[in-house]
Amino acid sequence: MRPLIARRDTPPLTARRGPVAPPPAPPPVAEPVHRDPAPSIWSYRVQRLWLTPLFRRVLRVGVPSFALVFGTGLYFSDEGHRTAILDGLQEIRREIEARPEFRVNVLGIDGASDRLTAEIRGALALDLPVSSFDLDLEALRQRVEALPAVARADLRIQSGGYLAVRVTERVPALIWQTREGIVLIDREGHFVDALGDRQLEAPLPMVAGEGADRVVDEALALHAAAAPLGDRLRGFVRMGERRWDVVLTDDRRILLPERGAVQALDRALALQDATDILGRDVLRLDLRNPDRLTVQLTPAAIEELRRLRALERDTLTGGTSG
């Protein structure tokens, strides 16, 4: 039988293209390099150095720190950079200080009289509102305590922009007459105010003489002991900065010793109760010598005593001649 597809008697395609080239030869295989398993001396030293804790700490901390410090120093070595940084910081500070929560708007003063309150406001001289960062509380406290009538002062900034000033005012204890005028002093001898500038709530003891401000406690003790004298008492005079004279009405005086002045005054008052010696013509009652009481009479009493003695002498003379 004949095939449905006719056959060609032609050679294969490969036969027409020519002979097939042989496959390429494989590349030459490189021979393996035989390396010494033992590290070199430098490799060994590097490995040992890496195992050193100090070296690792220097690389991890020291080198970055040095680079940071060096870079910062290099940056700030330029004056322009420094000025820019400082200006920026100043601007930030001004913005913070200008915030409302840091401003002081009200000044309050407690514990002071109206007159002292006005003096404190004048001494502080604050132009409110003001930033709390601009207030030196210690310097302001010293200003307030520099006022004669202020014993202690405490300044604090409270919430709401309130500057609180708490004052302990000096309390007058004595009226002291000096060469410059009449002033008020407290129990510690500190000047409080001039007498003409202060309205007293109650009468105070009157003292005079140099050094009276250094013995205020003794003057107050004498005033308490002299209470039985009542309206006769005028005050106390410090004599020679050593002792006291008790000044009474009609320029009468009780001269007290340097030591034991209160006890000597008690003895004088006991004598007054027994003899009413101060109701007689006595100008000075001298107790400076504790062993002897000396009495100085008034000029009128001395003149009367002289008259009586002359009369007695004349009487005796007349009786003898008769």
UniProtKB/TrEMBL annotation:
UniProt-listed PROSITE patterns: POTRA
Membrane topology: Single-pass type II membrane protein
Ranges for domain POTRA: 102-170
Subcellular compartments: Cell inner membrane; Membrane
GO terms classed as biological process: cell septum assembly; FtsZ-dependent cytokinesis
Alphabetical keyword list: Cell cycle, Cell division, Cell inner membrane, Cell membrane, Membrane, Transmembrane, Transmembrane helix
Keyword Cell inner membrane included in the entry's annotation: yes
Predominant location category: membrane
Region of interest: Disordered: 1-33
Any Pfam family matching the protein: FtsQ_DivIB_C
Presence of the UniProt keyword tRNA processing in the record: no
Record's GO cellular component terms: cell division site; plasma membrane
Compositionally biased residues, Pro residues: 20-30
InterPro entries assigned to the protein according to its UniProt record, in alphabetical order: Cell_div_FtsQ/DivIB_C, FtsQ, FtsQ_C_sf, POTRA, POTRA_FtsQ_type
Basic and acidic residues bias spans: 1-10
Family: Belongs to the FtsQ/DivIB family. FtsQ subfamily.
HAMAP family: FtsQ_subfam
Functional note: Essential cell division protein.
Annotated protein name in UniProt: Cell division protein FtsQ
Source lineage: Bacteria, Pseudomonadati, Pseudomonadota, Alphaproteobacteria, Rhodobacterales
Annotated gene: ftsQ
